[in-house]
């Protein structure tokens, strides 16, 4: 019987039931002086030559947010811990436990831990993907023309 | 601002907190007369032309099991509900909440809901992938030569 697994670990267990996995690095994102993202960590759960996709776990501390960006590649997101809000194009959504969120190509998006709790989510992407684009001042002005999106971008959503 | 999301749903919510998602079909696997798999359902959470990978949710009812198979493509598995056991090559592992399991290429594998509870797991695969191979009698005899694997295949693991 062919067996390529004898000498390699096949399991990484969650440590302390705290959304941290043994053998998986927790990559802190530095606070960005341009305030493009804040208080977010990344763990790459699955990646490598055998996979055309990657599965990552992001966690945003209360009040933090992911980068406001867009790119040719799509995101497939599964809310894994806590609650928050996301902006996907013109759609502003409250997200919570196990919600599935699709971010289509070339669509502005941002995730925010807008409640007093962490927001953790799994995110599947293509292994081969383009670099994110950041919004221009005009793009931002277009987004802010929607009052609800303006509040979201200022982290001023009410907790309804 | 470009926006491709105005007319399409970006969110599928979990219905009744029961690992079933609105708008996602629950695909029952028929009981297989050759007993290759039993009591397992599949939901395809993310798939489509924008993704080189797919994310599926499988759920095995207590006592059920997935197909014993191997293939060129790899599996990336995250235990999502309950506990059970998996066989990956010669490695037999108890798996539980949020464990990450890698099934390398061409490695025999099977998942079993070996406790009195469902075993649910997320599974990332490549969108383009080969068809599974089933074990020959000789392959099965080789596996059964390990007493623990023989017990696993007969669903006779003790709950330690």
The chain pair forming the largest interface, with residue counts per chain, is: A-B, 55 and 55 residues
N-to-C terminal Cα separation of chain A, in Å? 57 Å
Mind telling me which CATH architecture of chain A this is?
Sandwich
Discrete helix count of chain A? 2
Order of helices and strands of chain A: EEEEEEEEEEHH
Instruction: Classify the beta-strand content of chain A into a percent band.
Output: 35-45%
| Number of distinct beta strands of chain A | 10
> Which class of chain A in CATH terms?
Mainly Beta
Structural class by secondary-structure content of chain A: mainly beta
Domain module count of chain A: 1
CATH topology of chain A: Jelly Rolls
Strand arrangement in the largest pleated sheet of chain A: 2-3-4-10-5-8
How confident is the prediction overall: mean pLDDT of chain A?
88
* Spatial shape of chain A: globular
CATH superfamily of chain A: Jelly Rolls
Quaternary structure type: homodimer
